[in-house]
Amino acid sequence: MLSLVVIIVLGYLAGSVPTAIITSRVLMKDDIRNHGSRNAGATNVFRIMGWKPALFVVLVDMAKGLLAVLFVSKIVIDPVPWDMPLIRVLAGVAAIVGHIWTVFAGFRGGKGVGTAFGVLVALIPVPALTALVLWIVLVLTTRYVSVGSMTAALSLPVTMLCQRHLFHTPVPDLYFWIGTVIALLIVFTHRANIGRLIRGEENRFGSKKKSEEKPS
Fold it and tell me: Which of 33, 74, 76, 127 keeps 20 to 30 A from 161, CA to CA?
């Protein structure tokens, strides 16, 4: 049981590394949460600091999810009471939770998209990569990163159902349900964006406008 506790704690701590905040403090000498949408995520970094810092943030956030699933989940101190797929899921979810509610920054982190993508690539690569393609298409056509992120997330359970029923590819129930939970969690973290979309106030990708709205 100690192994399970250690895996969850380390997964959470790995996800909690506040990449966007650290990057902004190093390059701007300020907290990214004081600017733009006030979110500690790659999209806000892109709007305020440019594409190079944003790309760095995305890659590190993805790596946090991959690290949790592929390496942290394998830590063994004593016999683990559950099977490995469930342990991988728990480590990945802990990393996502850590990213959104990071202990290193007052429990105010990002929206979890990059870290969730890293987790999903490790667990369900085909649905994850399908979601990535959908995200790219939607961001390029609508220029709304939030629309691309939420739609791509919601495509995960749909893609897994298609794999199972149309292509007769085995998809563990556990992975289907965790994909669904992650999708709903990502939509939840975008609730402020949904409000701005409804009001017609959401910034488009590439827009020079830097919203100073208060965080949700």
Answer: 74
